[in-house]
C-alpha cells in the first residue's frame, strides 16, 4: 500500500509541474529545456518529468524505510523516473536528510535501493567540477564519488579526504558503517592541510573511530614523496574531541654532555575536565635521571594554576675526579655529581568585587638546579629567583583592606635564602578628616582638605646566612664569623628564632594643596612612622674583658617624624619666527620647585634610640672612647638634625616646524629638542659643615627621531684632600668660572631603534614611472620583494666613577650591544643578540637564532659562539601537537649542557 501512495505523490507532483506556463509563473518557476549529462542513461519521455531553474522540493516521509523528510534542490534541473523511483538532481544539487547533508554537481536518489549517489560533472572546459561534500553532525569530508545508503547508514567513498582531529586521511576507497567508523584502503595520514601534503604516514589499511582514535596497519613515513624506512608494524593516533584523555607520552632521544638520553617520557593522567597530571622522566647513559610531576588545574570563572615538582640526580664523574685533584676555582663552572630539586607553582585567581583573591608564584629549589637543567640562556644567567604566596581582600563599603603574604628569595650565586614569613598588611585608603569627624557638609574651607592614610605591616624576616660581626679599632662586640643555617626540616625552629620580627606603622597625613598669588602651588606635608621590634639592646662596658656586654629585652619601639612644604610653579617662554622660515616657533618650559624639610636629631638621648656607650680606651692618649650605638637591629632613624632646603629645576624645549608634504597643504609638527633637563641640589642649615648637597644633573632627549639618550651625573661642590680624598669645607663650586663641582660619577646610555617605521615618509609614489613591459632576464626571479620587515636595536652604555686621594682611582666601563630580527623571506626569520665589553675587550654574550616555517613543520637553529654556553642546536619538528614526537634534534657537545 505504501508503494502506491508514493507513486501517487510522484504523479501528483508531475501533474502540477506539467501545468500551463501561468501556473509556473505563479509558483515562481521558469520552463526550460531538460539537461541530460552524457554519462547518465536517457529515460523515455513518458516516464520522465523535467524541471528547470532553482527548484526545491520537500516530500513528506511515508511510513517505511524513510525515517524523516527528504529535502532536495538543484540549480539547473531535476529529473524524475517514476517507474524506477529515481530522482536526478543537476547543478549545485543539495540534499538534507535529518542531520545528513550532501552537496555535489550531480546527485541521484534511488528510493528503490534507499541510496544516494553523488559525483562531479564536467564543466564547459571539460574539467571536473562540483566535488561532492558529505556532512553529518560535526563531520564533513569531500570525495570524488559518494554512495550512501540512508537506511543502513553505510557508504562507499572514492578518493576521499577526511579530517580526524588535527590529522587528515587521504584514501583511495573508504567504507563507512552505521557507527560512523571508517575503513580506508591505500591511505595517507598527515597533519598537513594541503591537497598534496609535504609528508604523510603511508598505510595500506586504516580504521578511524571519530573523536577517539586512528589505527593503522604496517606503515612508513614519506617526506617530500620520498619513502623512508621509518615506520612500524602498527600505529595508534588518538583524536579526542573536546575531552582530554589519559595516555602514554612517547620520549624523545638525543645526545648531550650527559650522554645519550631519553627525555620527557611518561604518562598523562586526565582525572577529569578540570585537573590533569603529567608524570615524566629523563634517563642518561652516563648516569643520572630526572623525574617531574606536573599538575594543571582550572575552575571556570574562579582560578587556574599549575604545580610542578622536579627531582634531578645529576652525575658527572669527570668533574668529581678533576675537583678531587685540584682546588682551582675555575673548575666550579663544571658542577660535580649532586641531587637537586625544584618547585614551581603558579596560581592565578579571577578577581571579583567584594571577594578575596588568593594568588601564588613559587619558583624555588636547590641552588644549582637551574644551572644544570636550564631551558634558556636567560634562565641559566638569572642570579636570583623570587616566590610569593598571598591572599588579598578589600572590605566592601569601607576604606580598609588586608593582605596575608609569604615570600622567599634566593641567590644562585651565593646560596643565600631570605624568607618573610608571615607578612601581614592592613591598610586604610585616603579619607577626609573633616568628613570623618563632622556630620556637616563640606564648605571648601582650607582645613577641610586634610586627609589621612594608614598602613601597618607585621612581618618576620628570616635569612639562612647570618652576617659576621667584626671588631673595630676598639673592643666593641665579640667577633663572630658568618653563620650559615641549612634550610631543612630539622632547622625550622632555629631559622624561626633567628628571624627579625617587626611591625611598621605608617601614617600619611595630607594637608591639602593651595594656590598662592595665582601662579604658585603650595603643598605642606607631615609624616609619621613607628616600628615595633622584638629586640632592644642595652650596652654596658666590661672593664675586665674590655668588651661591651649586650642585654636584650623582648620589645622595643622606635619612631620618626618630619614636616615640610613644597612650592612650585611653571614658566612658559615662546619665540616666534617670521613667516617663510622652516622653524616657526621654539617653546621653553621651566618648572622650578623649592621644598623645605625638618627632622629632629633622633640620636638625642631623650628619644632613647641610641646609647652613648664607653667602648674602650685610646692606647695612644689613654682617653676614654664613647660611641653612639643603635639599640635596635633595624628601623633606626637617621642621626643628626636636618633643616634642609631642596631645590630642582626642570627644563624642556620643543620647536614647531613645517612638515614635509608633497601637497599644497602646509602642515606643522612639534619636534622635541630636550625632553627633560633636570638640575637639583639642597642646602642643610643644621649641619656644621659641608652644608651644600651634591649637584645632580640628568638629561633625557631623542636624537634624529630614533635615538634615545639618557645622561646623568653627580658633582661634588667641595674641595678634596689630596691624601685622604675626603671633602674639605671649601667650595670648588664657582659659577663665575662655570664650575658646578667635581664629577664623582656619570652615566650615558644611547639606544637606537632602527626599523622601517623610523625612516618611513608620507611621500606618495609618482604615477609616471616607466612601465616594465620589457622581457625579464631569465636568470632573475620574476618577483623580488625588497620591502622586507626587519628590526635593529643598538645600545651603548658608559659608566664613569672617580675616587679621590692617594688610593683613589678612576673606573670607566663601556659596553655596546646589538639585537634585532630579519625576515629574510616570508618563511625565513633570523634573530640575533650580542654584547661587547669595550673596557675588557671581549664579547660578553652572543646568540643567533634562525627560524624556518616549513608549513606543517618548523625548523630552528640556535648558535651561541662564545662563553660557557657556547654551542649549537638544530631542531626540526612537526607543527601539530598530535605528532609532537616526530622531530629531529641535534645538539653540540662543546658547551656544558647545550
What does this structure look like?
- With 898 residues, the protein is mainly beta.
- Among the domains are: 1-111, Sandwich (lipopolysaccharide transport protein A fold), CATH 2.60.450; 244-415, no CATH class.
- It is built from 8 helices and 57 strands.
- The protein is elongated, with a radius of gyration of 42 Å.
- The strands form 7 sheets. The chain has a 30-stranded antiparallel sheet that branches. The protein has a 17-stranded antiparallel sheet that branches. The chain has a two-stranded antiparallel ribbon with strand order 8-9.
- Strand 8 and strand 9 form a beta hairpin.
- The model is unreliable at 1-63, 328-332, 469-476, 761-787 and 894-898 (pLDDT under 50).
Low-confidence residue ranges: 1-63, 328-332, 469-476, 761-787, 894-898
User: What fraction strand?
Assistant: over 45%
Q: Write down the overall geometry.
A: elongated
Radius of gyration: 42 Å
DSSP helical segment count: 8
How confident overall, as mean pLDDT? 78
Structural class: mainly beta
Major sheet, described briefly?
Answer: 30 strands, antiparallel
C-alpha termini separation: 81 Å
Count the beta strands.
57
The helix fraction, in percent, is: under 10%
